[in-house]
Amino acid sequence: MKLRNPLIVGSSGLTSKADKNGKWEEAGAGAVVLKSLFEEQIEAQGDLLMAGASDYPEAEDYVRAYVRANGREEYLQLIRDSKAACHVIPVIASVNCYRADTWADFAAEIERAGADALELNVFYLDTDIHSDSREVLRHYSSILKDVRRRISIPIIMKIGKGFSTIPAFVNRLQGFGANAVVLFNRYYRPDIDIERCRIVAAPPFSDPSELGDTLRWTAIVSGALPDMPIAASTGVHTWQDAIKCILAGASAVQLCSTLYKHGAKVIPEMITQIADWMEHTKYESVEEFRGRLSLSNAADASMYERTQFMKYISSRETI
């Protein structure tokens, strides 16, 4: 999938309307990822409609099926309308799911609606202390393989950073049919209100300090799997951050929090500043510097390793 530049508008409320997505194209974005369709969201809508109706299981099943079907149709229409609004850039659909049986067939409908690719956001939170860690891989691979069998458009797997062997995991995903990965998904985060003694939502936006993990694993995965396209996400707030990610090996970066904070002007500003930097450093294309500082190319690649962090801290005598 060809992009005119590496700046992708990430899945969020900013991409929930077709007219908004047309404006992202006008602003200069390389692609847009539509707001995710959440399985949990559809189930919750059905539950709200059926509150107090547990005595009628047939009606309950009907309403849940109706809500699910209508939620899907609205999403398919968003794809069609966004494709009509975006004449140049790819429109990437996004599905947030945790069950293969629910979403595999819907992926084919997404392709027929005109999506250029599908970002598959699988979140499997296993809290069972007796579970086998291999079950997580089986869960992801089962969904990916089911979807891959049904569609021909690229599948982009958006994963979190909570895996113990991220390069091996990405390698397996590539083997199962993933065409690219996003590093990383930033999941909902809980917090605790100590005054009211209740669980609350933590701030939703990423912080620039979170870029370090994104850089590290982008560099490591890119070094190990140079033919696997990576979109760097989480902590990317400035044009300098975008350049760092590309140097580490990313093919693209996803922008979200910085767009919420500063608006659409961020994109043309970043494009101009990246172009100025490339002219200053004598690069004629993004491909010329992509991966120059990946794990396999950087002269000081050991800086990506955690043990080097400990050595760095232990050698400092002042703050």
UniProtKB/TrEMBL annotation:
The protein's matches in InterPro entries, at most eight in alphabetical order, are given as:
Aldolase_TIM, DHO_dehydrogenase, Dihydroorotate_DH_1_2, Dihydroorotate_DH_cat
GO CC annotation, single? cytoplasm
**Which Gene3D superfamilies does the annotation name?**
Aldolase class I
| Superkingdom classification of source | Bacteria
Q: So which residues are the signal peptide here? A: none
The molecular function GO annotations come to: dihydroorotate dehydrogenase activity
Sorted alphabetically, which keywords does the UniProt record give?
Answer: Flavoprotein, FMN, Oxidoreductase, Pyrimidine biosynthesis
Q: Pathway involvement?
A: Pyrimidine metabolism; UMP biosynthesis via de novo pathway
Query: Is the keyword Oxidoreductase assigned to this protein?
Result: yes
Task: Give every Dihydroorotate dehydrogenase catalytic domain span.
Answer: 2-278
GO BP annotations, alphabetical order: 'de novo' pyrimidine nucleobase biosynthetic process; 'de novo' UMP biosynthetic process
Cofactor(s) of this protein: FMN
- Name the PANTHER family for this protein: DIHYDROOROTATE DEHYDROGENASE (QUINONE), MITOCHONDRIAL-RELATED, SLL0744 PROTEIN
Q: What is the protein name stated in its UniProt record? A: Diguanylate cyclase
